[in-house]
Amino acid sequence: MVTNITNLGRSGLSDWLIQRVSALVLAVYALFVVGYLLFHPNLDYATWSGLFAQTWMRIFSLLAFISMAAHAWVGLWTISTDYLKHTGARFGFQAVVILAIFVFLVWGVQVLWGA
Amino acid sequence: MNSKRPVNLDLSTIHFPLPALTSITHRVTGVILFVGLIFGFWALDASLSSPEGFDAVRDALAHNVLAKLIAWGLLSALGFHFVAGIKHLLMDAGYGVDLEGGNRKAQITVVISAVLVVLAGVWVW
Amino acid sequence: MSTMRNLTFDAIIIGGGGSGLRAALELAKSGKKTAVLSKVFPTRSHTVSAQGGITCAIASADPNDDWRWHMYDTVKGSDYIGDQDAIEYMCNEGPKAVFELEHMGLPFSRFDNGRIYQRPFGGQSKDFGKGGQAARTCAAADRTGHALLHTLYQNNLKNNTVFLDEWYAVDLVKNANGDVVGCIALCIETGEVVHVKSKATVLATGGAGRIYASTTNALINTGDGIGMALRAGFPVQDIEMWQFHPTGIHGAGCLVTEGCRGEGGYLVNKDGERFMERYAPNAKDLAGRDVVARAMVMEVLEGRGCGENADHVMLKLDHLGEEVLMKRLPGIVELSKTFAHVDPVKAPIPVTPTCHYMMGGIPTNVHGQALMQDGDGNDQIINGLFACGEAACVSVHGANRLGGNSLLDLVVFGRAAGIHIEKSLNEGVDYLDATQSDVDQAMSRMARWNESSGGESVHDLKTELQNIMQNAFGVFRQEDNMQEGVKQLGELRERIGQAHLGDKSNAFNTARVEALELDNLLEVAEATAIAALERKESRGAHSRYDYPDRDDVNWLKHSLFHPGDKTVTKREVNFTPKTVDTFEPKIRTY
Amino acid sequence: MSNLQVSVYRYNPETDSAPYMQEFQIDTQGRDLMVLNVLTMIKDQDSSLAFRRSCREGVCGSDGMNMNGTNGLACITPISDVVKDNKLVLRPLPGLPVMRDLVVDMNLFYKQYERMQPYLQNDTAEPAIERLQSPEDRDKLDGLYECILCACCSTSCPSFWWNPDKFVGPAGLLQAYRFLADSRDTATSSRLAELEDPFSLFRCRGIMNCVSVCPKGLNPTRAIGKIREMLLSNAT
Question: Which SS3 state, helix, strand or coil, does residue A50 take?
């Protein structure tokens, strides 16, 4: 057993599962958004903001943002432990990633419920 | 005696089969998408903030070459990451986990994502 | 070399193959300070190449099977110079040793009832030869040696055996009383030479098939233990007895298991005739290996060989069907495709008798204690020295080994040596320390190579040696050829004594190891040659045109080659098993 | 022309500060030799070349090396399989420290193997004869027990390159599954517990380099998937 304290789920198995579940959410969300844009070639502001005014879309989006956060963290954490052998560099990289994810999340919530 | 032993790990001398190349590309596109989130959130934020913001995003995507390139790049990365991700899920489910299946899945991944990259380009332009 | 480091163990086992690992396992379990010293990582030892199986009366294929029937076959197979007390011990203890291996995890193939799969092998019978062909060889597909060696290594890991991997034993160290008290060893990785001190030194160094140009043996099979023993002045027994396996892949020499014929394959000549029916009407292709090998050579000599040069025969397997081949002989299919460019599912494999196994070796008793003869011809135990496996001559194989008996030999006598060493260590055995001059003596050979400044290359001399052996000491032998061979080997000894080691670096210097191996090849080759010349009869694997018959009056004996004066004496064969009646010599037919 | 251009990775720790490539010309006389034969011919020219070899028939796993970019066993790789433009490039197995020339230090590789407790564990009393096992249960070990520890797979695996101390690697994991799959082994839960962390098993990214180089045609990726299934069904 290799111990590690910086991974998300505290076990490889839960990280693995989180990565898969979040991937599915992101896949569905991406398909939906891309599909929506394709089917509305002449999209205007009212339709677009109307979509995001609906509660289900907000919840769906939030779910996608949270999935993004988890998915990105597991992925980038793995990358950091693969390539960054210097402890300080790895820790720094991980800190930047966490900060970025935090910013994205707050930003996302603000976009959805702000204004 | 030289105590620091060398390691043979000059990647340019090592042959990587197609599945290995799709795997590293999956990783690279993941990083690109993460960085690209800045643009994604910016576009979403701006487009929902006001009709003017919406138009600004729309105009940028319609006329600004840089914005078009970024959009195309991100859509391409998304396309590849999506297809390769499905390949991963199929392998997790035990489909095609042998030499032949692995190669075929990698080939299919490359072909489908190439098509998606072209389609994304058509869409953006 | 005054600053030479000492390593001290209760027991040092030289060789990490089947017998060495089995002995080590016994000692590791006992908590004695023991180490396995091996010139290759243990799972690279030649045991890994054993294919067909381990012969043992575990009564799986036939619930009425009896170890005494196995004993009868083995005595007959040995052409009656196998020691009957040792054969009795092996066949009787065998089932215990095989079940132990299964309990350790060896992945044997299985019958439908869940018991270990057994296949027919050459020379096997029921009811003392009267009940027809037996199926007594326990198998893990055709990778039994691999499965066995890995299982033993794994269980040594489990029991925390100390391993000196990629260390090379150079020579034995004897004290003033002539007891063996350790060895000189070279760490291949660093080039460091150390004096390994131990109360028991076990030679489990395997065979020396590389004295021949064409052999099924691994490149590492250079008879290092035999060489060390001979240089230390100890005798070797029945060293003229070399088994030629009937089915080596023509050209490449890779082994094709007897299990192929056990599963129903057979040999054909250029006319497609199943010629073994003429030579061994009852057992046919499953006669003793010496019998089959000779028959093959006869076919070729009489012009019925296959191929452009009419120099080999064919092993037909295609009639067995793809399913059986892939299930029972998957490794053979692989090897044949790689080395013969033949898919045995579709076409027969070109095969030729190929040097395979050294029946002779360091004479030991059933406890693995090495023996020599005193002036009156009585056995004398060499204190501190043990041997097991192919390096030893217990002797259970006599003049011809039966297929599947080598793996049994390894585990039974590796285990026996371990048990005996543990017992004698418990009794507080201790020998006089070696002096500096004793150590220097053991270092002299290595020093000679290190100081060499010119001379012939190791590679050329080795090739020459192998060709001499191949030409003069093959399946058939005769006086004048052998005399010439002995003479050439004598000259070769002079030249090897002057040969040159070009690379004198320390780190992983394989050239130095190959040079040291060449000395051992020479020792084994010369002992073989002189003993073969001396044995004026045909028995088992030793087949002479000039003495075509077995001579029980003069040669129902072991030969003993003494390195000091290069003479051969005789040693009595044991005919007194403890629990069964003696098997009297009979005419040997299959 | 049957002159083969061979380029060999050379490094002697006593004399070289860094590795370099040395060129040799080998007359193959038009034969499709095995790479090991070529190496032996080079050693006849230059006895200082170091490489491991033993069985010369693909069962002992000594001579794993990188040939024109791909790992394999020199003794069962015909030059026709790897040579491109009449050139053969021989390098040591990637990712492990080089002792000398083509010889790598395999200790990390063996350590990961040992960590998998590669021996049968059974806490029930041993019967007087063998433990019974149905042919169907025995069949589950096919494709697992044949591993020869040549390290071709693990040293072709990027995940092992980056974390050889933490990621068990394909060879070790194949062995882990060999015992998990054995109906006679009773240590399933402790074996699985050893593998649950984010590195030991889960660092496998399904790249399948291991499968593409295994000289015995084994499939560590599939074994890893099976272990993951066992972990998953154990934990959910």
Answer: helix
* Residues of each domain in chain D carrying CATH 1.10.1060.10: 107-235
Letter string b/e over residues D80-106, b meaning 16 or more CB atoms within 10 A of that residue's CB? eebbeeeebbbbbbbbbbbbbbbbbbb
Q: Which residues contact D61 (CB under 8 A, 6 or more apart)?
A: C43, C44, D73, D148, D149, D150, D151
Q: Which residues of B touch A75 (CB under 8 A)?
A: 27, 30, 34
Residues of D with CB under 8 A from a CB of B: 9, 11, 13-14, 16-19, 66, 68-70, 89, 91-99, 104-105, 156, 158, 161, 205-209, 211-212, 219, 221-222, 225, 228-229
Chain B contacts of A23, Cβ < 8 Å?
Answer: 85, 88-89
**pTM of the full predicted structure?**
0.97
Please judge whether A38 and B86 are an interchain contact, meaning their C-beta atoms are less than 8 angstroms apart.
Answer: no
Query: What's the rounded mean pLDDT across residues A41-57?
Result: 94
- Chain B residue closest to A69 (CA)? B34
Of C289, C328, C445, C539, the catalytic one is: C289
Q: Between B and C, how many residue pairs show a Cβ–Cβ distance under 8 A?
A: 3
C118 beta partners: C138
Say yes or no to pLDDT of A115 above 60.
Answer: no
Closest of D144, D174, D129, D216 to residue C111, by C-alpha: D129
Q: Do D13 and B88 touch (CB under 8 A)?
A: no
DSSP string for residues in D29-96: TT---BHHHHHHHHHHH-TT-----SSSSSSS---EEEETTEEEEGGG-BHHHH-BTTEEEEEPPTTS
CATH topology of domain D107-235: Fumarate Reductase Iron-sulfur Protein; Chain B, domain 2 (1.10.1060)
What residues does CATH 3.10.20.30 cover in chain D? 3-104
Whether C289 sits among the annotated catalytic residues: the reply is yes
Q: Is A111 in Cβ contact with B48 (below 8 Å)?
A: yes
pLDDT the model gives residue C182: 97
Note whether B5 contacts D: Cβ–Cβ < 8 A: yes
Strand D98-100 relative to strand C34-38, pairing: unpaired
User: Using the beta-carbon criterion (under 8 Å), do D48 and C511 form an inter-chain contact?
Assistant: yes
- How do beta strands C193-203 and C236-237 pair? unpaired
CA distance C405 to chain B (A): 38
The pLDDT tens digits of the residues spanning B19-76 come to 999 999 999 999 999 999 999 999 999 999 999 999 999 999 999 999 999 999 999 9
Residue spans of chain C under pLDDT 50 = 1
Distance from CA of A25 to the nearest CA of D (A): 20
Structural domain spans, chain A = 12-114
Pairing status of strand D64-67 against strand D70-73: antiparallel
Percent of chain B with pLDDT over 90: 94
Cβ atoms of B101 and B72 closer than 8 Å: no
Q: Which residues contact D233 (CB under 8 A, 6 or more apart)?
A: none
Rounded CA separation C385/C372 (Å): 11
Residue D211 to residue B16, Cβ atoms within 8 A: no
CA distance C260 to C535: 33
pLDDT at residue B2, rounded to an integer: 65
Of the candidates C44, C35, C38, the residue with the CA atom closest to the CA atom of residue C11:
C35
Give Cβ neighbours of residue C205 (< 8 Å, ≥ 6 apart): C14, C15, C169, C223, C224, C225, C226, C228, C389, C391
Measured between alpha carbons, how far is residue C188 from residues B3, C112, C518, D54 in Å?
16, 48, 16, 15
- Classify domain A12-114 at the CATH topology level: 3 helical TM bundles of succinate and fumarate reductases (1.20.1300)
C150, C331, C511: residue with CB nearest D47: C511
Contact C239, C207 (CB under 8 A): no
> Class assignment of domain D3-104?
alpha beta
